[in-house]
Amino acid sequence: MIPEPVNIAEALRYMGHKETEVSENLLSIISDCERKLLEAIKPEYTYRCFDIENTEKGVFLCKTALTLLGKDIKEHLSGCEKAVLMCATLGTGCDGLIRKLSVSDISGHFVTNALANALIEQICDNAEKEIKEKFPDMYMTWRFSPGYGDFPISQQADFLNVTDAGKRIGLYLSDGGMLIPSKSVTAVMGLSETPIKQTRQSCSGCSMREKCSFRKRGERCGS
Amino acid sequence: MDLKQLLKKDFIFLDGAMGTMLQKAGLEIGGIPELLNITDPKLIQNIHEQYISAGSDIVYANTFGANRYKLKNESVEKVITAAVAIAKKACNNKALTALDIGPVGQLLEPSGTLRFEEAYDIFKEQIIAGKDADIIVFETMTDLYELKAAVLAAKEHSDKPILCTMTFEENQRTFTGCSISSMALTLNGLGVDAIGINCSLGPEQLVPLCDELLKWTDLPVILKPNAGLPDPVTNEYNVSPEDFAGQMKTAAEHGVKFLGGCCGTNPDFIKALKNALKDTAVQRIPSEKKAAVCSPSKTVIIDQPRIIGERINPTGKKLFKEALKSCDMGYILSQAAEQVNAGADILDVNVGLPEIDEKNMMIKAVKEIQSITDTPLQIDSTIPEVLEAALRLYNGKPIVNSVNGEEKSLEAVLPLVKKYGAAVVGLTLDQNGIPSKAEQRFEIAKKILNRALEYGIPKEDVFIDCLTLTASAEQEAVMETLKALKRVKDELGLKTVLGVSNISFGLPNRPIINQCFLTMAMTYGLDLPIINPNIDAMTGAVRAFKLLSNMDKNSVEFIEAYNQLPQKTQPTAADTSEISLSYAIENGLKDESAKAVEKLLENSDSMDIVDNILIPALDKAGEQFEKGKIFLPQLILTAGAAQAAFAVIREKMRTSDSAPVSKGKIVLATVKGDIHDIGKNIVKVLLENYGYDVIDLGKDVPPEKVAEAAETHKVKLVGLSALMTTTLVSMEDTIKLLHEKKIDCKIVVGGAVLTPEYAKKINADFYAKDAKETVDVAKQIIG
User: Fold this and answer.
1) What pLDDT, on the 0 to 100 scale, is given for residue A3?
2) A111, closest residue in chain B (CA to CA)
3) Which CATH architecture group holds A8-216?
4) Residue B387's closest CA among B429, B347, B359?
5) Does B752 touch chain A (CB under 8 A)?
6) Contacts for B49-52 with beta carbons within 8 Å, 24 or more apart?
C-alpha cells in the first residue's frame, strides 16, 4: 500500500483551524510532519464479508457466533444481504513517532496527530473502494463503527476476532478496550443487490452528540 | 526419539494448518479452536494423524491461543494438558509433540498496555501446563518484546528445546517494525534452538526473507508459510500443494532445515513437500558473525566508528541529579532525543546515584527511552543486580557497560551477558588498578576475552575499553592507551571502546584536545567512541573520519548531515536575526525564538526575559485564543516556540549553576485505560512555560499512582484527562480515591468527552475546556 499525500484540509479541520488562511509557518510544519509520518506508517487494512440474518437483538453474521447488537446497526444494514467488516490501521510506527514528538516537539506532536487522523480515514476510503470493486453489482452503505448509536463498543473484541485482525494487520485491543495501534478504524458496511435508502450520517442518531468536540466548536464530523 | 536425533536429518518436516482444517470441519469463524481439545478430542487427534502419515516429524498441539487472556473462563491447564495428550497419542512415538504458543492477543507496552512482566506470567502458565510436550514452539509473533518474554519464561521453567518463528510482511518487517536482523541477533543471544518465519505470505514471498535470515544466524532455520494469500471474500488460499512444494524447495536448498505449512495448508501440502525434497542437496553458507547491537527496528553493525552518546549520566551534572531525585523522566528523555538527533548511534544509560533506588530507576529509564527512540542502548552500572534488571527488560540486544579483569567482576557480569545475549564492554583494569603499560592492558583484554569465550559468549560480542587517562596528569600514558587499543584490535580481532572526554580534564581549550585525541584513536582502530554527540566538533570528527577513510562511500552520510535543507521561507524579515523574541513566539517560530533568546541573553538577565517578554507573549496568545482570534494550531505553535526559548534559558541557568525558579508542582495524568495523551501533553508544555513543575505520570495511569504522586510531591493541583467515554469511569475512580485518602489538593479535569456538568458530577473541582483554561486554574490555585 503506497502512502498518499495527506488530506491537509481535513487535517486542519481536526486541528481546529478555522481560518481560510494558513500561515506559512504552519504549512511548513505540516509538510515536515507529513514527510515524517509517511516514513513512519505502515498502513494496512483487511475485511471479511458475511451473509447476514436479522434477529431480534440485531444482525447475525452467518458461519460465526457473532450477532452485531442494537437497533442502529440493524437499521444501517436493513435491506442488505451481506455485511463487510473492515479494519484499518496506520501501524505501531505511527504511535511511535507521535510518542517521540511528545518529548521533543509539541507542535509536531499536535500536527502529526491530526495528520494521522486524516490519513486513517483516507486508508478506509481506499479499502472501501477496493471492496466496491470486488462487488461491482452491489450497492454499499457508508461505514458504521462500534460505538456509533447503540452499536456497543464492547463488541470491538468480537469484531477483531472474526476478521482475524491481529494476525492479518496487527490490530489489537488494549485492556481498556481501545484499538491499538491507536490510529485504527473498524467499520461495518452493508451490501445489497438493490439500491439502498441511505440514512444520512447525522448528529441526531449519534451517541457522542453531547460530548463531541466538533459540536462543541459548532461543527460536524461528517462532510 | 528427540529433537537431537531429528536434527541429524537433512530436513525436518513440520505439520500444516490446524485452524484451516478445523474450519473445514465446521468450526465457526472466530470460534475458539482450543476448546475442541475438550469437546471433540477425536477430531484433533485425527488431524494430527493425517499430518503424521503425510510425513510430519513434529506436530504442533492444538494450543496456539490457549492462554489466560483468550480462553477467559476455561482453565489453561486443562486445555493444554488435554491438547498435549491428544498430540502425543497421535504421535505414538513416530513424531514429536510441540507445545504451540502464539501471541497473547494484546499488544505489549509501549504501543499497547500489556506489561512485559504480565506477558511473562501468561507464557509461564502455558509452559508449565505443557510440560509433557517434547518441544516448545513460539510462532506467529510480531513483537520481539513479547517473544523475549516468552523465551525467558520457557528457559526459566522448562529444559525443552525452543523453536521461534516470527511473522514478517513483504517489506521484511513485522507489524510492530521488527527487522529480521534484530530478531536473529536477539534470539541467537537468548539461546534458542531454531529460528524462522511463519504465516502472512506464501513461500514465494518468504524465501527472500529466509535468505536474509540465513545471513544473520547459524541456528537451524524454520519456514512455515501460508498457502499463498487468502481471498478476502471466499477466504480461499491461492497456491496449490505442488506449487507450494516447488517454491519451498528453493528455501531448502539455501539451508532451511525445518519446513512446514501455515494457514491454508493441509496434509497434501506436507506430502507434496516431502516428495519434492527427495534428493535435494543443501548448500548453507555460514553467517558472517558481525559485531552488532539492536533494538527491534534498528540494527547497528559495528563495521565502522559508531557514536555512543554519553549524556545520560548524572556524573558532574547538577540538573541530571535533580531530575533523578525527583524522578523527572521528561528531562532524561529529552537528553535521549537530543543525542539521537545530533547523531548518536547508541546511547549509554547510567542512572546511578547513591540517594536513589538505582534498579527501579534503571528499569524505568530503559523502558521509557526505548518508547521514544529505536537507538540501541548501552546499560551502564556497577551493580550486577541493576544490570540484570535492565537486561531482562531491554527490547533487543544491548551492550553491558562493563566488566573488568578482576575475578569478582568476571564471575558476576559474564553469566548475565551470556544469559540475556548482550554484548559487553571489558575494561582493561583489575584488582591492581589500571596498568601503566600497553602490554599489561593487552593481557587483561586477553583474559577477559578468554573468560567470555568460556562462558559461551561469542568473540564478536566482546568490546574492549583500553581506558583513557588524563593527559594533564599522565601525559606519557596517552600513547600507551592507543598502543593497547591497536593490539587488541589487530591481534585479538576485537572491537574497541573508549571514553574520550576524560583526556582533557584539567586543561584549557578542552574541545580541541578531545577532538584531536578522538581522531588519533580512530586512526588506531577505535570503533565505539563514547562522546557528547551534541558537540559538533566531536560528531563532525567521526563523520569526517569515516569520509576520509573511505567508509562513508561517496560521502553520502557526511553530505546528508551538513548539507542543510533549503531555508524555509519566513513570513517576514529575510534576516532572521532581526526577528524579535515576542514576534517569534506570537508567530510560533521555534528556531527563531531560540535564536532571539540566545541573543537577548548576551545582555539581559534570564528572569527579566521570562517576566517581561515570554510570559506576556504567552498571555497575549492565550487571550487571543479565548476571544477566538487565533485557533488551537496557532496556540500550540506559540507554546512550542516558547518551549524552545525556555530550553535555551534553562541551559544557560545550568551552565551558570543557578536553579530555575519553580512556581510549584502539578501532577498530570491520562487516566487508567486511556491511551490518548495528546491533550495532556499540550497542557503540560503550557504549564511548564508558565513556570510550573509538571510531574507527568503519562497515560493509562491507575488511580493509586495518581494518589501516591499527589501525596509524595505534596501538590496543590492534580490534572486528569480522559478522551473516551469508556474511560470516564476511571476518572471518577481516581477522584474518589484522592478524596478518600483526604489528599489536600484541587482537581482539574479535561478531555474531549468531558462537559462542565459531568466534571461537577464526578466531584472535580474544576473543568478546563482547553490548555489555556488549565493555566488559568493553576494561576488561581497556586499563583
Assistant:
1) 58
2) B633
3) 3-Layer(aba) Sandwich (3.40)
4) B359
5) yes
6) B49/B90, B50/B21, B50/B266, B50/B267, B51/B15, B51/B16, B51/B267, B51/B270, B52/B90, B52/B91, B52/B94, B52/B95
- The residue with cell 553491558 is B400
Q: Tell me which residue has cell 528572569.
A: B607
Distance from CA of B370 to the nearest CA of A (A): 10
The C-alpha atoms of residue B244 and residue B292 are separated, in whole angstroms, by 35
Q: Which residues in B lie closer than 8 A to residue A175 (C-beta atoms)? A: 106, 113-114, 673
**Which residues lie across from B194 on neighbouring strands?**
B163
Least Cα distance to A206 among A57, A72, A85, A67 occurs for: A72
Contact yes or no for B99/B62 (Cβ under 8 A): no
∠ CA B14-B244-B142, nearest 5°, is: 60
Phi-psi region of A108 (alpha: psi -120 to 50; beta: other; left: phi over 0): alpha
Q: What is the DSSP string of A149-203?
A: TTS-GGGHHHHHHHHTHHHHH--EE-TTS-EESSSEEEEEEEEESS---PPPP-G
The rounded distance, in Å, linking the Cα atoms of A138 and A143 is 15
CATH topology of domain B292-561: TIM Barrel (3.20.20)
The residue in chain A having the minimum alpha-carbon distance to the alpha carbon of residue B26 is: A63
pLDDT digits (tens, 9 = 90+) for B370-404: 999 999 999 999 999 999 999 999 999 999 999 99
- The sign of the dihedral angle between the CA atoms of A179, A181, A182, A183 is negative
Locate B453 and state its grid cell. Answer: 569465550
How far is residue A147's CA from residue A149's CA, in Å, rounded to a whole number? 6
Average pLDDT over residues B553-577: 67
Does any CB of chain A come closer than 8 Å to the CB of residue B589?
yes
- Do the domains B576-655 and B3-276 match in fold? no
Backbone angles phi, psi at A148, to 5 degrees: -75, 140
User: Averaged over B549-555, what is the pLDDT?
Assistant: 95
Could you tell me which residues are beta bridge partners of residue B391?
none
Asked if the B3-276 domain carries CATH number 3.90.180.10, the reply is: no
Spatial separation of the C-alpha atoms in residues B103 and B114, rounded to whole Å: 12
The stretches of A41-178 forming alpha helices (DSSP H) are 71-76, 92-104, 106-134, 156-163, 165-169
- Architecture per CATH, domain B665-781, reads as 3-Layer(aba) Sandwich (3.40)
- Contact between B337 and B372 (Cβ < 8 Å): yes
Whole-angstrom CA distances from B292 to B110, B190, B306, B542 are 24, 15, 11, 18
- For residue B578, give the DSSP letter: G
ipTM confidence: 0.89
Question: Nearest CA to CA, how far is B88 from chain A (Å)?
Answer: 28
CB contact at 8 A, B362 and B349: yes
Domains of chain B, residue spans? 3-276, 292-561, 576-655, 665-781
Closest residue to A17, CB basis, from B631, B643, B769:
B631
- Closest in B113, B176, B199 to A176, CB measured: B113
Distance from C-alpha of A45 to C-alpha of A186, rounded to nearest angstrom: 10
The Cα B675–Cα B647 span in angstroms is: 27
* Fold of the CATH domain B576-655: 1.10.1240
Q: Which three cell numbers stand for residue B518?
A: 578522538
Q: What is the pLDDT of residue A2?
A: 52
Lowest mean pLDDT among B131-145, B433-447, B599-613: B599-613
Contact list in B for residue A111 (CB cut-off 8 A) is 633
pLDDT digits (tens, 9 = 90+) for A144-174: 999 888 999 999 999 999 999 999 999 999 9
What is the pairing mode between strands A67-69 and B308-312? Answer: unpaired
- pLDDT tens sequence across B319-378: 899 889 888 888 899 899 999 999 999 999 999 999 899 999 999 999 999 999 999 999
